[in-house]
Amino acid sequence: MIVFNKTKDLPVSARVGRADTFNTRLFGLIPRRGLGEEEGLWLEPCAMIHMCFMRFAIDAVFLDRELRVLRVIENFRPWRFSPWVCGARGVLELSAGRAAGRLAPGDLLEFREKTAGGN
Q1: Would you give the end-to-end CA distance of the chain in angstroms?
Q2: In angstroms, rounded to a whole number, what is the distance separating the alpha carbons of residues 48 and 81?
Q3: pLDDT of 64-79, one tens digit each?
Q4: 3-class secondary-structure state, position 24
Q5: What angle do CA 80, 85, 89 make, to 5 degrees?
Q6: Residue 91 forms beta bridges with which residues?
Q7: β 69-76/2-5 pair status
Q8: How many Å is the maximal CA-CA distance in the chain?
Q9: Burial 82-107 (b: 16+ CB within 10 A, else e)
Q10: Architecture of the CATH domain 2-112
Q11: 19, 28 contact by CB (below 8 A)
């Protein structure tokens, strides 16, 4: 998927996977050694995340049902637990530093499926 910030009219991430089962949400990015600048993971449903066994920091973006940003935790390091974010329906995990200047509470995001041509 592609993630776009409709409020600021700018792209956020070009390659976002989806974790929407118990196991994919539980393990999330744990098996990975890192994230590319344009990569991310969308966990849904989710209102809190853990960084247990992670090998790298991320930016965690908590979104409500309308995909409005509720909270951004930048440079969220391994072996930490996020707070429970009231009203959050999902969490967009991005490479550390990706949210800076691109995402803020109140921003409205859009998730677009990639087409066969890669757009």
Answers
A1: 9
A2: 8
A3: 999 999 999 999 999 9
A4: helix
A5: 110
A6: 43, 62
A7: unpaired
A8: 39
A9: beebeebbbbbbbbbebbeebbeeeb
A10: Sandwich (2.60)
A11: yes
Residue 56 identity: F
Report residue 39 as tokens: 């990569």
How are strands ordered across the β-sheet holding 2-5?
10-13, 2-5, 109-112
Q: What pTM value is reported for the model?
A: 0.93
Q: Enter the tokens of residue 76.
A: 């969220």
The residue type at 33? R
Q: Which residues share a beta bridge with 81?
A: 50
Model confidence at 112, in pLDDT bands (50, 70, 90)?
very high
Q: Which two tokens stand for residue 74?
A: 């930048």
Tokens of 22: 């118990």
DSSP 79: S
117 Cβ contact partners less than 8 Å away, ≥ 6 residues apart: none
